[in-house]
Amino acid sequence: MLSEYQETLLQSVKAFQSTQLVKNKYENVLQHLDSGIMLFDNEGVLTFINVQMARLLEMPRQSLIGCNLLQMLRHPHLSQFKKRNVLRIYRETIFHRKKYHELIDEYGRHWLITVTYGDQMDGDFLLSVKDVTDFKRVEQAAYQNDKMAMLGKISAAIAHEIRNPLTAIRGFIQLLRPHLVHLGKDEYARIILAEIDRANDIIHEFLNSSKPSAPQKSKVSVASLLKEVVLLTESEALLKNCQMVLEVPEDGYVSIDVKQIKQVLLNIIKNAMDAISEVEGDHKGVINIKAEVDAKHINISIQDNGNGMDKGQLGRLFDPFFTTKEKGTGLGLSVSYRIIKNHRGNISVDSLKGAGTIFVITLPIVS
């Protein structure tokens, strides 16, 4: 009888140990997931948090285990930004029954938050957080390419239809100009011709933004390219109270269409000057142009201390016809985007309202 009891007890111990090993194994897996995980019980107490989630919250795990939501929000190490987002997720989950949330953190990264609850969780709440920044970047690039492709389809169809009547109007205005001069109205003719030329320029930019010509590449020193660009812009920069600072290594070559890449660089520098001129007061503008070479690429950064942009403007910056300038066409950066892509490169931008903007152009290097 005792032997049977001991055998049963031994089996129970082995079963418990086996269960504990499985539990430890799965807990170890959860601890090292690239997604952050938190588990609240049916009373709202945090019973589990993995390493990644604690890292995202920038707090030690042990200080959070056993806390309820209110205690978490009162935790002295939780930043105000994170407190606001925790509250927002709580409201949308409880009051609006939302199970999926998206947010951008203070570092500009995108996060997808999933809340699982209901019968399958026995009253518990499982919250998982995944970094989807790279997915968003790919999605944005695909969206941008779709827009440019659509722009290409409609541009060819409308360009000639607009240019033909503009050419006819310009010709007749030139024929009428002597009569307008006789009437003392030559200024009218000058304005009409200038506006027609401006319309033609917009059409030209529109066509280039949809499909810039194939790059005619040649091997060029990045140092000489950037020095020439600075030489072309420094006089205008001085007039606008801007200082140009160039930092570039003497080595580093790229295979590019010099005219097209120069167009991109000049466009970005001109935008930087305009952003600096928008800052009120006696503001000393600085435009830093820097090139860095790694094993496969060269990164050219153009940074200004101008007015900067908010997140809404930043997200639409490469959209055709989007502009923050009163007299801008909104085509310069969309043209630049397509030119860099045609060179198998990448162009990115980061900005903070009131603190300036930085553009980074990445191009493959050649030996």
Automatic annotation (TrEMBL):
Task: Tell me which EC number(s) this protein carries.
Answer: 2.7.13.3
| High-level lineage | Bacteria, Bacillati, Bacillota, Bacilli, Bacillales
Q: Which residues form the Histidine kinase domain?
A: 157-367
Native organism: Paenibacillus puldeungensis
Q: Which InterPro entries match?
A: HATPase_C_sf, HATPase_dom, His_kinase_dom, HisK_dim/P_dom, HisK_dim/P_sf, PAS, PAS-like_dom_sf, Sig_transdc_His_kin-like_C
Question: Which NCBIfam families does the UniProt record give?
Answer: sensory_box
Principal EC category:
transferase
Catalytic function, reaction form: ATP + protein L-histidine = ADP + protein N-phospho-L-histidine
> What's the protein name?
histidine kinase
Record keywords, A-Z: ATP-binding, Kinase, Nucleotide-binding, Phosphoprotein, Transferase, Two-component regulatory system
What CDD domains does the record tag this protein with? HisKA (cd00082), PAS (cd00130)
Name all PAS domain ranges: 22-76
Which PROSITE patterns does the record associate with it? HIS_KIN (PS50109), PAS (PS50112)
Any single Pfam family the record assigns to this protein:
PAS_7
